[in-house]
# Entry
Amino acid sequence: MATGTFDIIHPGHGYYLEESKKIGGDDARLVVVVARDSTVRSRKRVPVVDEKQRLEVVKMLKPVDEACLGSEVDMFKVVEKIKPDIITIGSDQNYNIVDLKKELLKRNIQVEIVKIRGYMTFPLDSTCKIIKRIKGMEFDENIFKDC
# Structure
C-alpha cells in the first residue's frame, strides 16, 4: 500500500509508485490510497486538483493495481480495510515510522513499513515547486490563450 496526495502528477510520483510496487515482489498488487481534500487542506495546502480527479489519475498509472480515497477522520481505517503486508512511505512524506508502527500495533495490525529512499531529480520534481513556478510566471496572453 502506498499513500499520498498526488496533486499535479510529476515524475517523483511515478518513481515512488514504481519503487513501492517493486518492494512487494513479482506477484505484488499495489493499492494506492489518495488523500482526501480535507486531509490535504489540514496538512499541506489547498489541493489544486480535487480528490475525485486525483483518484482517477492515480488509477491510470502503470504501477497501480487499485486505488481508493482515504478516510476523512481516521487514516488507519483504510489500512484496517485493505490489510496490506507492506506500507510504503515516500521520501518526502514526514511520517514518524516508529509512531506509525506503535499505532498500528495498538490496532492489532501487523504490517511492515518501508521508507522509499532516493528520488528522481528533475527541475520541477514536486507539486510545491510546480505551483511556485506557475505563481512566478508573468502573465503572457500567448502562453495562456487556451486557458
